Amino acid sequence: MPLLAVSGLTKRYRRGDTLVSAADDVSFTIEPAETLALVGPSGSGKSTIARLVTRLIEPDAGTILLEGTNLRALKPSALRAMRGRLQIVFQDPLAALNPRATVGRVIEDPLKIHTRFSRGERRSRVASLLERVRLDPALASRPIHEISGGQRQRVAIARALASSPTLIVLDEAVSALDVSVRAEILQLLKRIQRETRVAYFFITHDLGVVRAMADRVAVLDGGRIVETGLASEVVSNPQSEIGKALVAAAPRLPRS
Amino acid sequence: MTLLRTPTALLGFAILFALALVALLAPLLFPADPLSIAGPALLRPFQDASLPLGTDRLGRDVLAELVHGARTSLLVGLAAAATSIIIGSVVGTLAGFLGGILDEVLMRVTDAFQTVPGFLLALAFVSVVGPSLPVVVFAIALGAWTGPARVARAEVLSIRERDYVAGARAIGMHPLKIAFREVLPNALPPVLALSSVIVAAAVLTEAALSFLGLGDPNRITWGGMIAEGRTILRFAPYLSIIPGIALVLTVLGVYLAGEGVVEASAARKVRA
Ligand SMILES: Nc1ncnc2c1ncn2[C@@H]1O[C@H](COP(=O)(O)OP(=O)(O)OP(=O)(O)O)[C@@H](O)[C@H]1O
Ligand SMILES: [Mg+2]
Asked: What positions does the domain ABC transmembrane type-1 occupy (chain B) (predicted)?
């Protein structure tokens, strides 16, 4: 059984008199411990799909099965409980965390919701999660607005890991970071995947990142998946128009 | 501190500080019951050094009454403003964050309250329930919470679209907890910016209620003093003028200090 099975996912937005398909009959699966990349040009519907899959917005049609559970059929309280299995990291680290909260609180919140740990146990879990994302545990008492973008993205990853999810959706999670920080975060994500066997739904427009991170890739254009395949094959020999265009536009791809 | 750099803000805070000090120290400065007789009736101000502001028609010390009256004015003003900001933020947050029918209903209720003048609401409420300090506070808040509610709702509508709110939902946080812990604290600054205007209005409303005899009868209030003086306005105008000046100074102080806070926080925002 796949970890995540999405089928027929559809979402349209009204723009003036016309309907824009941000997701058009989208279907795909993700296996445990796998990384599926989703690439596509700006406005192709990547963030919409990320938010549909994580049930942050309501689809017009389609089903989302996580570990066999239909996420669209759950009552609100059951869905909240299920959310511990499925986490998301957003693109903009400056917007994704409550600026008034402390680092410790941000990471502790999912522990409060999804575990029965005591206060003391939660504190030590927060410290070990901070260490896991290579941050100083002393950072726990600092407010979010005082730390850098790269640090915030590590905190966001630590928060996503706190409830021991089986799948993390990364919506351009490294795009807003500068190049050296980006490479560090990618390595961190790789290491975490080896250690925890978490699966990633890795959204990006950077084919170099796809090649380095993903097992398989789906190419998105105008809300439709136009091509899927092994990451190495799609990057070296794209079949779809948009895939070819993305490869042509990519800066030199790193070999790996 | 930027807050004290503008002269108007400085003046406002000086007035408020002096008032607060006087109000706090009233029992020490004038330990005797301010309602007891201290000298001859209707002594003019600046005649007797021991009764610098003179006496009223019963021979009570006007300065002692004034100082004790400051306690009521400030207490009621602050408590009513705090109450209306709390009610307004809760209503505005629920309406803005949960939306839908609840938003409709809450905003219609807000509209309804807003169309009735606040003073009339307070008057009606106190007349029905009977005057006492908590009733007066609540009565004033009844006419003042709609402003904070609207501002809070508008702010919440923009904040609820932020990623960190989606993030709170994504970890499975309960919607009410998101509303009051993640959204409301971030929506509060523009609501608090209203507080000086609300405090000033509350002080005036309290005085007006007392003037009409609807204040707490066991407390001296400036409004009550003005009302008492009014009966002999021609003969002893100072009895109304002195508490009137105190009232104007208080409102001015609150207003200037509030302006200073808003300016300073605007300056901070620009720099940040
Ligand atoms: N809330 C919304 N209301 C109306 N239209 C929307 C909304 N959200 C997205 N869209 C539209 O849906 C389409 C897909 O947007 P989406 O943000 O999913 O694209 P994306 O692939 O993530 O783009 P980017 O690479 O720029 O992040 C776009 O045309 C966008 O304008
Ligand atoms: Mg996007």
From this structure: 70-258
